[in-house]
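Service request form, structural biology core

Requester: graduate student, group of Dr. S.
Request type: structure prediction, single chain
Budget code: on file
Notes: please return the result as structure tokens.

Sequence provided:
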Amino acid sequence: MINLDQPRFYCHCFQGHRAKSITTHSGQYRALLFRATLVLTLLAAGNTGFAAASQAQNPDSVKARAFTLRPYSAIYKASIKGIPFAGSGERSLTQNVDGTWTLEFSADAAFFGMKETSHFARKGAQLIPSQYLQERTGLGKKPAERATFDWSSNKVNWQQGDRQWSMDLKPETLDNLSYQLKLRMDLAAAHGKPLSYDVADDDEVYQRKFIIEGEETLTTDLGNLKTVRVKIHRTNDDRATWIWFAKNYDYFLVKLLQEEKGTTYTIEIKEAAIDGKPLKKRQATKLSERPRHL
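Core staff response, request fulfilled:
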């Protein structure tokens, strides 16, 4: 564990599990730290409750075939209301000897940690998950949760400790990590159209939708990057979340910003490597706390 006097985030910044309520009496500072860690696992946070067309109905999705999957690693930094946390966070994609892929995410604060792993195969424009694993440590610790995708019967089988359950799969259903990679694959062909995905999570298959707002140049630790700005679609106004993806670097996630109840949580790229080649690091200037109007 990391001393609260030196809070650190190991933010695997593009993950997402639906945030579950956890009560703590350790004070406002710990609450903010915990909330910021959940932001690091944001993109699948919460059932959005909207209806959207399936991927199979989107003719542009076939253009994702042109997207080349390449191994990568990325390190991010996090801040609350512009106040940075020391440390770093990691995310990686690796190819296995059998041609399948493994995507890993981890987030770790002083009293909370999460690690998620997705194993999947690629077939054309589709990602086909085979197994998903989530592990938590510290506050909110629970037995590891594992999902096994059985595409021969269109079922996903879950196990957590002694508990086991199954649910039906829709065509092209993804897990909580693989859908994020599919979003990157689809951005190049989206042409501004909303993107949506069916995601298997715990006891249901829900849908996640993204609105593409436009392009923007950001100044980051990797220099000035041309990005596409995307907003998570939600049916309520309790929080607003924007994500920026680098156009010239396989649509890497370079920044995530969430505003909720007057507090701003920010995640920014610190360093990254694609195919083992580091992206050149340059002196950074402070990014704006709000997205610019396009």
